[in-house]
Design a protein that fits this description.
mainly beta, 10-stranded parallel β-sheet, 3-stranded parallel β-sheet
Length: 230
């Protein structure tokens, strides 16, 4: 069973993630998700109709909104801006975000396998019980991120900034942390078997139960073999 950590809104302390702030009343929204649009205070259920002539949605802004059950598989967004937004049970598999920013955003029970968030600016973002296997998180600029009880096998964190980030109770098997800025990164409770780039996890904190897997990854990165004497 995953370790319980305060509540789903983050840890306590001055560096705690700030949760999304939504108004009590949200207006139902069902209009197409198109570019050059600002949606504020909306309750979006299922999948709004997609514009047939717009392969890439550019300059979409979402604020103070909740999106439940959306199916956006393989959609591409450029300069998506989300502030105080909660995504619940959405299928975002293969979604591509280009030059996008997320602040006080929560993803809960979302499918995001193969999502491409490379280079995204992410501050105060929660991913809870999400599936992000093989996700591309390369070069994200992250601050106060929380990834809890999620699948991150073979996720690509290369050259990402993971400052004051917690990845807890997640499956990080074969994830790549090469070149990361991991000052303040905490990995307690996560499966770290076969991770790559372990030598670049300077400043990160692990638990005693993770020592063998991380040490093995460090030996492998240094070219040191561990085997019985023959």
């Amino acid at each position: 069973m995953p370790t319980q950590r305060s509540d789903d809104t983050g840890s306590t302390g001055k560096s705690a993630r700030r949760p999304a702030r939504l108004p009590e009343h949200l207006e139902p929204g069902g209009e197409p998700v198109t570019g050059d649009t600002e949606l504020d205070g909306r309750l979006i259920n299922e999948s709004p109709p997609a514009p047939e002539d717009e392969r890439v949605v550019t300059d979409l802004g979402l604020t103070a909104s909740r999106w439940s059950g959306g199916r956006l598989t393989g959609r591409r967004f450029r300069r998506l801006r989300c502030v105080d937004v909660v995504f619940v049970n959405c299928d975002l598999s293969g979604v591509v975000l280009e030059d996008s920013g997320l602040r006080r955003v929560e993803f809960r029970e979302c499918r995001m396998s193969g999502a491409v968030l490379a280079g995204a600016r992410m501050e105060d973002v929660l991913l809870l019980q999400c599936k992000l296997d093989t996700a591309n998180l390369r070069m994200i600029a992250g601050n106060r991120l929380e990834l809890l009880d999620s699948e991150l096998g073979r996720a690509d964190f290369r050259e990402a900034k993971l400052n004051r980030t917690g990845i807890h109770d997640c499956d990080l098997s074969e994830a790549d942390f090469s070149g990361t800025d991991s000052h303040g990164l905490r990995l307690h409770g996560s499966r770290v078997h076969g991770i790559k780039g372990a030598g670049d996890l300077r400043g990160a904190t692990i638990g005693p139960d993770q020592l063998v897997d991380v040490s093995t990854a460090l030996f492998a990165a240094s070219g040191i073999a561990v085997e019985d004497r023959r």
